[in-house]
Amino acid sequence: MKNPRDILIKPVVTEKSMSMLEENKYTFIVDLKANKIEIRQAVEELFNVKVDKVRTMRVKGKFKRVRNRPGKTPDRKKAIVTLKQGNKIQLFEGV
Fold it and tell me: Using CA atoms, how far apart are residues 4 and 44, in angstroms rounded to an integer?
């Protein structure tokens, strides 16, 4: 198994993801090559919680222009992790 810190890149802190905290759902940007089993194991190991469900989606990068030169933001993968009843991640509590 890969290092869990290499799988979970960063948490997503948006208005929509903060509203999902009430349903015990947490959103992370994860490695493009990570699968649901690796994501589940990484969250359980790093935060000492029990994961109920993992949903993933690939987000394509947008085309941007900087000084009239075309470019593209990188593709990324998001994971919405649902925890079992009674489990919470303390990282999100103060936000």
Answer: 9
